[in-house]
Amino acid sequence: MWLARVIALTACFIAVRCINPTDENYALTFDYLQKYGYLTKDVDAVLAQRRNDVLRKAVEDFQKYYDLPSDGTPNNKTLQLMSKPRCGFRDILKHGKNLSKWPKTHLTWDFYVATENELSTSRAS
């Protein structure tokens, strides 16, 4: 009976483990995830319990996007990456959850209508 209670309490603790809104990194994490597209602006209106689930999912999406261990909690590796300087472009576009990076790394290009002068300039550069 004692073991069953311990297991039940452990399961409850794991189920309700959440990001603490009083944590000093909470506001930083929340603002960062909103700025870069992982959270929508209307998440402020969501009830507190649901907001925590949404925030956990956003942290998990961020971790997956950057190939970090994804448990949905803002651990040290996640917070370190969030604190690095970066451009202001969003990772997640507004029209969808594009959680994968573009796989193409070698780009090709061509001039369809180019003068000889433009072609020689492009070859020189």
TrEMBL record:
Domain Peptidoglycan binding-like: from-to ranges: 32-82
Keyword Repressor: no
SUPFAM superfamilies found in the cross-reference section: PGBD-like
Residues in the signal sequence: 1-18
GO biological process, one term: extracellular matrix organization
Cofactor(s) recorded in Swiss-Prot or TrEMBL: Zn(2+)
UniProt keyword annotation of Signal present: yes
InterPro entries hit by this protein: MetalloPept_cat_dom_sf (IPR024079), Peptidoglycan-bd-like (IPR002477), PGBD-like_sf (IPR036365)
Keywords assigned: Hydrolase, Metalloprotease, Protease, Signal
Pfam families: PG_binding_1
Family to which the UniProt record says this protein belongs: Belongs to the peptidase M10A family.
Protein name: Stromelysin-1-like
Species the sequence originates in: Temnothorax curvispinosus
